[in-house]
Amino acid sequence: MNNKDILKNGVYIIAEMSANHAGKIENAIEIIKRAKDAGADCVKIQTYTADTLTIKCDKPDFKIHGGLWDGYTFYDLYNDAYTPWEWQGRLKEVCDAEGIDFLSTPFDFTAVDFLESIGIEFYKVASYELVDIPLIEYIAEKKKPMIISCGMGSKEEIGEAVETCKRKGNEEIILLKCCSEYPAVLEDMNLNLIPRMKELYEVPIGLSDHSEGYEAAVIATALGAQVIEKHVCLDKSIKNPDSDFSMEIKDFATMVRKIRETETIMGHGDFYLTEKERMGMTGRRSLYVVEDIKEGDLLTESNIRSIRPSYGLKPKYYKQVLGKRATRDIERGTALKWELFE
Predict the structure, then answer these.
(1) What's the mean pLDDT in 179-193?
(2) Distance (Å, rounded) from C-alpha 151 to C-alpha 163?
(3) Conformational region of residue 240, where left means phi above 0, alpha means psi within -120 to 50, and beta covers everything else
(4) pTM for the structure as a whole
């Protein structure tokens, strides 16, 4: 797999499951099936345990203050949110059977090794790991496509991550603009950075969207985003650490439809005539004889006009033909052609 494979069908839409399985593999499988039905190209999970991300510690450094997870320790949050590794091979099999891509975010070397063992074809790097250069090196060495979220990233930090991949011989990179807020408020989304990132880093750019609704995804698509990632849940009433900022799958289906409509509206950016426009070309103006003209008469402002339809010479020739002599009798209502005058 390479970037061309990922992007071959237009905007690549990722349904991020994260913790929305709420501890039940049945929910995870149902999310996969419904994401496929909703039009997603890929279902993404996360591969970590609380022990691979942090340590069990109650010191102030390890407690979350404010926001969606206020009061948690990092360890307890990740212990509640993780996807059991013993499920993950099974979830990939379900994705394969459903005809939808399977993707995961590893958070340490052991997670990368595990994902390699179940045959993952590409990787996601989370925003918080953007600065974990040793982890990015280790993933890049697998020579598989890497989708890297850039939340909180400075221009230099994003550049360093990109250069790290390239230094390891991996140029199959996609960057995702991201606002690492849960949920992200609209005034912080800064989607105009998408074309700027494309210019700076010369790789495909997408959006990892934590905002509510589908508007940001649609606007990002119009700005040139080639990947959209969105957290999805079956129902917000199924409570888990991610449910409050995730999109219900029925709304996700609407988002997919709006993204596809936006792609259609944006077109391919080249000058061309549609078939219906081609048929309507006769409504353009052209030069017509508007009074009977005898052979030898001059073409004048009174007997030649630029009018609709478009079967005569183009209006740009109007001044050029004035003063020419007719080579034959020309009836009123005749489209002016070069052969009708000297």
Answers:
(1) 97
(2) 18
(3) beta
(4) 0.92
- For residue 295, count CB atoms less than 10 angstroms from its CB and return exposed for 0-12, middle for 13-18, buried for 19 or more: exposed
User: What is the pLDDT, as a whole number, of residue 297?
Assistant: 98
For 290-335, give the DSSP string.
Answer: -S-B-TTPBP-TTTEEEESSSSS--GGGHHHHTTPBBSS-B-TTPB
Give the mean model confidence (pLDDT) for residues 26-43: 98
Instruction: Tell me the C-alpha to C-alpha distance, in Å, between residue 185 and each of 75, 180, 194, 202, 213.
Output: 26, 10, 17, 28, 11
What's the Cα-to-Cα distance from 176 to each of 28, 100, 158, 205, 308, rounded to whole Å? 24, 20, 10, 6, 51
Taking the CB of residue 66, how many other CB atoms lie within 10 A of it?
Answer: 7
> Cα 286 vs. chain centroid, distance in angstroms?
43
Tokens of 23: 């501890």
Q: In sequence order, what are the residues at sequence separation of 6 or more whose Cβ sits closer than 8 angstroms to the Cβ of residue 127?
A: 149, 150, 151, 152, 153, 178, 180, 208
